[in-house]
Design brief:
Blueprint: H1 41-50, H2 53-69, H3 80-94, H4 100-107, H5 113-132
């Protein structure tokens, strides 16, 4: 809205003209015109697939593998970047916050400043997420 009744490059129209399926003029055709949103079938399919007995069995196996991996993780021969990713995967999958200190110490070993910055941001975001639960 422009208070001085003058147009500027950042002014937005008071109302947005959204094209409908019945719009036939070239000026009013939206790239989304005619596309109808799918119902919640996709979401329902995802939810129902994740609750199948086979998926539950796989999820249980994954949890067992992660539980066994936690005490052995320091035995892996990985670069600092790979080790950080492994630690973050374990933290995210198990909620094991005791490994955050190891993840942080690992990040400090990164040679590349951009990778270190991204990894520190990942840790901060994970902590925010865990604190919001």
């Amino acid at each position: 809205m422009n208070l001085n009744n003058q147009k500027s490059a950042v002014d937005l129209p008071d109302e947005l003209d959204v094209a409908t399926e019945d719009s036939n003029t070239e000026d009013s055709i939206s790239p989304l015109a005619g596309i109808k949103p799918d119902t919640d079938k996709t979401f329902d399919r995802i939810v129902s697939n994740s609750e199948t007995p086979k998926n539950q069995e796989l999820s249980n196996l994954k949890q067992k593998a992660l539980e066994q991996l936690v005490p052995l993780v320091d035995n892996l021969e990985q670069s600092p970047d790979q080790y950080f990713r492994t630690l973050m995967m374990i933290i995210q999958e198990t909620g094991n916050t005791t490994m955050l200190d190891r993840a942080y110490e690992t990040v400090l070993k990164f040679d590349d400043d951009k990778e270190r910055a991204q990894a520190l941001l990942t840790i901060a975001n994970e902590i925010s997420y865990l604190m919001s639960k």
